[in-house]
Amino acid sequence: MIGVTISFDDSRNYVDITLEPAAFEKEVDVKAIHAELLSGEFEKLYISQGSLKSACDKANHHFKIKDNTPVKERIGERRNAEVEFKIAEDALSVRLILTAPYGGLLPSATNIRNMALENKIKRGIGLKRIENLLIKAKDAEPGEMVEGEIAKGLPPRNGRNSRFVPLVPNALERVLRPQVSDGSRVDMRNLGEVICVKVNAEVLKRMPPGKGRNGYDVRGNVLEARDGEWLDFKMGNGTAVSSSNPNLLISTISGMPKYQDMVMNVDDTYICSGVNVGTGHVTYDGAVLVNGDVTEKMLIKASGDVTINGFVESARIESGGDIIITEGAMGKVNDNASNYSCQLIATGSIHVQHGQGIDIQCSGNITIGRQLAYSRLRCGGSVTVGQIDNPQGNLFACDIVSQAAVTAGTLGAVSGSTLKIDFSPGFNLLLERKDTLDELLRHLRENNIRHKEKIDLIKQKLVPSELHQKVEDALELYKNETALLHWIEMKALEMKQAKDSYQRDIKLVANKRLYAGVSVKLNNRSWRSEREYDRSAVKYEGHQWHYQPIV
């Protein structure tokens, strides 16, 4: 370009431009000069567009007024890489920000580590992480910023609080975990001995809390950890702390133990060899253990668990805990399936080895050992037919209302008998609670905004001394209202997560086969199998039911 000279200075670290208006044929173009700089030996160097424009504007002005005075300006330079350390607020990590050099040098990993030490970053520095960032910076364009974590502290780990270990299994756990008979095969009929403890039997052990582990931040400061705490026993009925060992809970009565929600209860247990016309109905404030059958039209009503080591035929059993039937249950159903002669009603969960024609209602889970047919099920949890770890049982011709997964080996039957599963009631109850909470939250937010405006207005006023106390009371009320608002917001978020979790958890799983005639429903969204499928699952995603083969 005529009249334009660009060159290094003697140190070759700076770029100078000389513009001679006397040699110009026309005004010089800043963009053309800048493009030439980016394509030649100066392309990796830092070029100041401001300095370049200033020099060109000055030279063009000289050209216009016929002033032949040359214009000299320093417009660029070599720049080494820039290094910046960003320490997190909690001082548990450090990020390195490298600005790629303009024709200059990159520091070595050792140099950066030394610079970190000068910035009082003493612990957790990783040379390998620094080297990886330097490799990225080497390939980066001049002036491009490369960022990454190069140092980590160690957060303290608080000790675990004391935990409780039950020394006797719950009856339902025992049934769902059949005993191994010959070292490899599982005998579904061998469910172990019924667990009933005597007075002073050890039922719950408290394990000591763990020690905390101190941590450190990147500046080398020790972060103190807190040791775990001793938690007190939550003693239920029929238990007491051992006088010889404060970490043992013992039974004060003979009965059936049950550990639930960190509370150990030993229920006074009524034991009989069967319930029939000869024994009469059984109503008991405690657990009931029947080592035999329950015959037609008999009633068992207990505040604790009911365990039946036998068969139940057309009887009614009510339990304040779990119902466990180790053999089977059977009843009669009227023509329109509105009345069942065999009824099982529990506050907890229900387990039946096999059943037909029974009405099951519980707040927990329903587990069936082998097969269930022509029955009505209402539960607050899941339905599983077969072993818990690998359900392979049969479920057909039933009407089910559930709030979690329905899993079996075979769903439906070759005959095409109807199997209905409805997940709507539990979901609608959840939506009702969510709507109520959202409405409360909306009103509370409106009131809080209005009260904030009033409080801000009061703060701007000069309040007489006799009203100071009333103002303090108002501020305290506003503070409490804000705290309540935050708590309700957290609960509303939990409710939304519960709604999402419900939709994610409901599904049908057939581990062997899914036959025609199986229908599943969530309010107005439904799906029905019109043919036979191999191993498959039906899940609710994106407000629709979707069939998926299990591979």
Automatic annotation (TrEMBL):
<dbReference type="InterPro" id="IPR046865">
    <property type="entry name" value="FapA_b_solenoid"/>
</dbReference>
<feature type="coiled-coil region">
    <location>
        <begin position="434"/>
        <end position="461"/>
    </location>
</feature>
<dbReference type="InterPro" id="IPR046866">
    <property type="entry name" value="FapA_N"/>
</dbReference>
<protein>
    <submittedName>
        <fullName>DUF342 domain-containing protein</fullName>
    </submittedName>
</protein>
<feature type="domain" description="Flagellar Assembly Protein A N-terminal region">
    <location>
        <begin position="84"/>
        <end position="260"/>
    </location>
</feature>
<keyword id="KW-0175">Coiled coil</keyword>
<dbReference type="Pfam" id="PF03961">
    <property type="entry name" value="FapA"/>
</dbReference>
<dbReference type="InterPro" id="IPR005646">
    <property type="entry name" value="FapA"/>
</dbReference>
<dbReference type="Pfam" id="PF20250">
    <property type="entry name" value="FapA_N"/>
</dbReference>
